[in-house]
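Quick entry, no commentary yet.
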Amino acid sequence: MDLEKLINSGLKGIKPYIPGTPIIEVLKKYGIKNPIKMNSNENPIGISKKALGKAKKLLHSANIYPDPSNRKLVNTIATIYNLSPDCVAVGSGADELIYYLAMVFINNGDNAVIPEITFPIYETAVRIMRGNIKKSKMKGYKIDTEAILNTIDQHSKMIFFCNPNNPTGDAIGHKDFYDFLKKLPQDIILVVDEAYGDFAEIEDFPETVELMKSEFKNLVIIKTMSKSHGFAGLRVGYCMANSSIIELINRIRLPFNLNYISQEAATEALLDISFYNKTIKTIKEGKKMLYRFFDELGLNYIPSNTNYILVDTGFPAEKITERLMEKGILVRNATPYGFPTFIRVSIGTKRQNRIFMKNFKEIYLRIRGNT
């Protein structure tokens, strides 16, 4: 059987997404049972106790199908953002919603525009639908909105815009974003991925939901609960858009796409402001801690609006990440993103940050001394 003749042609050339090294691989390779995981931008302080308590209480209901409309969670999100519930859709992580949006809007031969350095799942989702990807140039590490506008052609249906951008951590402010929206043709869907928006430290982070409600019906905002709410393992994301777009998503959304425990726990987490504030405080303090450390070593890094820092080690990233892994510390090799000497370090607890700094310094100075 020749599978190449049978498969969806959009699959050709697609490479699997490479996630951060899981803990089980460190155990298998080095026998380290409790490594410090700073490679997938997870919440270092865990999950809301209220959400966790709710999840535990519901385990006995695992044999019952969940609410297929995710009604309670959708209504909670709608209330928080002062939206009608028909302007909200939820998914098993933000990734599921990215796939749905490509399924809704991309036909064979259409294209989507993405910055040349950004989250790779956008490209995968579009190519599966046999669409094409057009990549706009960056201004250094920053997304160039004028370059995006200049990349659009008559076949462009969508733009995926990650703000703050993964992996660089840079963010665009409200005025620049609004000016970009005003110039953008209204028949092109703009998907703004704000997975890291809760950590943005620029003063004028875009008020995208208000812009969507008041003026721009082509604007879709995606958010995840994996980061600031600690739901990376429970997989909850949501998007907000004009009700006509949400209706299209719901036509193809998998039945029971979010399990009952995730629905109920996510509702509790969104209402636990104390835990959310503690997370934001932990990340801000951790970033300052690591900034000082990298400054002392004379290393260049990109000031971050996320819960991680992309730092240039000056040496092959694989050499650094592998030696850190031997010590039980996981950080991300940024080579697949086009940064062969950079590592991406997720902000940890104070203890985790200190252990990382101690071991990184020893490894870095040893490598530098041998060159």
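second:
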Amino acid sequence: MFARFMSLRKVQIGLVIMAVFLLAAAFGQPFSEHVLGWTPYMFDENAMGQAPSAQHWMGTTSSGQDALSWLLYGARSSMLVGLMSAVIGTALSVVIGTIAGFSGGAVDRFLNGVILVVQNIPSFAILFMIAGLLQNANVLLVSIIIGGLEWTGGARAIRAQAMSLRGRDFTAALRTIGEHPLRVIMVEVLPHLSGIISPMFLRLIAAGVGMQASLAFLGIGSAAQPSWGLMINYATTQNALFNGQWWWFAPPGLCLALIGFATTMINFGLDEVTNPTLSSKRMTLMRRFLKQKSRQDAAEQAKIGALV
């Protein structure tokens, strides 16, 4: 299954894009400092608002800051928030959803009520208020807030699957012979949830990056920590769009779009591998069968017409 998953073109494209952003997050800052020779905290008074050139590969801001160094520094904070919020949200979804679905009874009713209450809270409004109260919130705090608000959808899906697995013969047999519920969950239930957990984790990465960028664009968070949202915020407040300085706001917007595109492509690949009805080979065979059947029907109709 893994070899088939890796052989899909859409998965390869998504993984390459994600690998580029992860490399930028890991090595972007030293590359900017030692290769480009610029950081977001340095100003070039002789190149304010300059278009891309040999000295500044992606142009400069109206203050003379190198736009590429901004983008590379922002990759670290944006990707860190996306990954950490995805880990936190996935962990909450798995723990709460599995316990609720496998336990049943009063525990399930209570946890399901918690899920429904949190799910109906407007997450971005709450995130905006909390982050606004905690000015200069660091990456970890923003990740905890985002992950703590974006777990409910996955928890409901995991709860439903755990309830189904709880009624299966193999889990009922293990409970009958006295196996500890925690061991049953860890050994028998969780492996069957991988088809839900993996897409949920990828979706939360894109959601975390997007929400962090939205907060930074609105001026919420640490102004000392470069990010893609903060880069767009500065470009907007300093009229980069009207001044035609596309190199200031277009690259971070493109990065955000590419992360969403990459996670979507990988999710499509996961669906195709885990869902047999979406298999490309099955679809190809089905198209061939339908084409052959249509030809046979046309031939039969022609014979009937000739007889008439």
